[in-house]
Specification:
Elements (H helix, E strand, L loop, with lengths): L5 H13 L8 H41 L5 H39 L1
Helix pairs in contact: 1-2, 1-3, 2-3
């Protein structure tokens, strides 16, 4: 599996840096966390959608190759490995987005 993307690392660092503010942080600081976190959330969402689209495209290529009896086994193997890798990446990006979304829900609750 590939390493974390820049935005995934930024999200991880952001949560670690700001989590303590959720319990007793001043409203001005909590609002800043919300504003900056919203930008990260948008970028994470875009990455997750892009990865899901790439995984879907790879799945469609495998399906098409399987249905084409003239596709060499070596090519099927290559396509399937690529599909698996892209599916794993998409799942990881979706998980990162969901975890960050949970953090942002906590931030929103702290703003109340």
């Amino acid at each position: 599996m590939d390493e974390r993307s820049n935005i995934e690392q930024q999200a991880k660092d952001f949560v670690e840096e700001n989590r303590l503010l959720l319990d007793g942080g001043e409203p001005v600081a909590i609002n800043r966390v919300f504003t900056l976190g919203a930008r990260i959330s948008v970028a994470l969402s875009a990455e997750a959608v892009e990865a899901a689209n790439e995984a879907t495209e790879a799945t469609e290529k495998v399906t098409k190759a399987v249905r084409n009896r003239s596709t060499p086994a070596v090519e099927l193997n290559r396509l399937e490995k690529k599909r698996k890798k892209l599916t794993e990446i998409a799942a990881r990006k979706r998980q990162w987005f969901e975890e960050f979304d949970d953090f942002m829900k906590e931030v929103e609750a702290a703003r109340q």
